[in-house]
Fold:
Amino acid sequence: MKNLFAAVFALLLPYVASAQFSVSGKVTNQNGEALPGATVSIASAQQNTVTDGSGQYKVSLATGTYAVVVNYIGYQQTTKSIAVRGNQTLNFTLVSSNYTTEEVTVTATRASKNSPTAFTNLSKKDLEKNNFGQDLPFLLNQTPSVVVTSDAGAGVGYTGIRIRGSDPSRINVTINGIPYNDSESQGSFFVDIPDIASSVNNIQVQRGVGTSTNGAGAFGGSINVQTATRRDTAYVELNNSAGSFNTVKNTVSVGTGLLGNHFSFDGRLSRIHSDGYIDRAFSNLKSYFLTGAYYGKNTTIRANVFTGYERTYQAWNGVPDYEILNNRRYNEYTYKDQVDNYTQNHYQLLVDQRISDKLSFSGALHYTKGKGYYEEFKEADSVKNYGLTPVIYGADTLNTSNIVRRRWLDNDFYGVTYALKYLPTDQLNMTLGGAYNEYKGGHYGNIINSSNTINVPYNYEYYRDDAKKNDFNIFARAEWNLDKWLLYADMQYRYIYYSFLGFDFNLNNVQQSATLNFFNPKAGVTYKINDQSNVYASFAVGNREPNRNDYTNSSPQSRPKHENLKDFEAGYRISTSRFTGGINGFYMLYKNQLIVTGQLNDVGSAIRRNVKDSYRAGVEFDGRVKITDQLAWGATATVSTNKIKNYGQFFTNYDDNSLVELQLKKTTIAFSPSFIGSSEVSYSPIKGGEIALLSKYISSQFLDNTMNTNPAGYTIDEENISNPYAANRKISGYFVSDVRLRYNFSTKAVKNIGIGLLVNNVFNKKYEANGATYPGLSGSNIYNYNYFYVQATRNFLASLSLAF
Structure:
């Protein structure tokens, strides 16, 4: 009997040892006020949580002794030791820090906990668990109303993100409050800063117009990135990933911790390679991030230097509809150096100054240098396209030649950003901020090789355009707390001057300029039901200038107007120890939205045209419930309608090069799915372990604004009617699931050992996330020349991380 008892006890011992107990408590300041949003971490158990609206937290721990660490901006880090033998309470009282923090830099352009706007905050831990080497948009895939895509199909290289159907050029991106969007195209190219996620401390994603920020106006949303901040202890981290398509990521991060109570230095070196899912669509990416900071009693100074280099084989055009059924990985480019080469260097000097207990200042000087080219092979190209005259050899005239060309971008972006934060009372929070930035972009092209002797010297420059853009803005924002009410007001003035090479009235290329002035007011109100929940409503105005192509490919007579957006938002939020979530309704009313219609302008170029009336309206839900201490479920859902009123689409008739117009009273905006949903179910069966199922559903999207309607008298041609990719101008809906496994543990020599596995598209779904269409007419037929950005079937990435 004794032996039987011993055997049973031995079998049950692992389960007893791993029994989970709750440790809960409250985090307050010295005045007893709750500190919502404080971070509670247990490093040895690889757990962290954030206090709710009343400062409460709760974690689950197995039997053992732990160090519990609490951090909150503006307060000293506090650590307590606890021996867990059952359910326990552990409270913390934080003391104000003797040193300044980077709080003003963080909050100057962000929404606060009770701001009447829709936003999602992502911590460093949130990003780390999905960071296997894919670009930043893929790490934001589980946030509400987001659709991501990859040109190469595997999430490495050129990637894109849409928020509420708005493309990247309409999403404002800042890094430490400094604009990242390209000043001319207005897009954000995360391929130019590979592995930036490994140097990010937190991100706020806002939807809609949001709060005033620096750079181009947010017409779909904004992504506010804060890079590395102070870490008080020294560290060395090695993070490596490898997987399908020869994808490899190597990252080394080091930091000194706080030296002499005043200084810290951190650095990261990364390289990422992937062959891509699409044929030949490789990516070779390299980057580094260096930062040093001084922390004084009233002053924080931080210098950031980070660089990204990318060499990617082009997969920009997607897979044509006539190839996709036979070869989903088809790439029409075969020239060995059909590549994009670009290097981008960033320099930032950030200053936070506490002027008094009520007044603080943040400012930044910044400079970004970018230079690179994309190389192309053009078969039998007309020499006249390069400003050359045909060459005559006896009786032969060479009008064409196989040409290898490089198109260069050599740009400089520099300026200053600033914010003054004033807290006259506990009830009033005021911010005055803004920026002045200048951009200089050199656009030029070279011929580096040709198959025939066309009298061209090596590196012959066949075009050049030196553009300049000045961008100034100033904004004032205030939040006034009146018991349970919060009143919000935000006003921004923005001035833009742009000088560029465009067409004059006689269709000659001449230097031109454009000047715009915008006023963007915002107002809202929040009612705090209790410490855990609130309701809010807001109204915001955004204005946005046309992009480079809108200006350069037009004359003053055909130049489009700027866009205007009036954004109405209302919602409900709740945050408890078990459930966090909210529901948000939006109505985004556009005036003069710019869209591609198929029409040509007076210089013969395809243009974006202003449509007078269009709108996006919908409801967003996001929530996360802690079902048990081991099981949690997070989900998002967006239902929307996205319409243009009185729309005219133009189709080219290839028989006579005329334009045929299709008029629609109301139509759906392209690339605007009516439903976007995501789900993340995570289960922690053992200490430090997690299994998660991540799912995403995107309903069908149209490739243009016609909803597949054809002009009267034209039908789809018989050759393509049997091909679903050619018969319709749309992307089919798709449901994709990923599985993520992580296990973290420690030894005496290693603070943390992390093992991870990410299986993307675990059910091997064949789908496309993006595309383009170029329909044309001939005879009585319509031909849909569709291109699709095919995403990878089942693939995996495995990771190993070591922290010392």
Q: What stands out?
A: Residues 2-17 form the longest helix (16 residues).
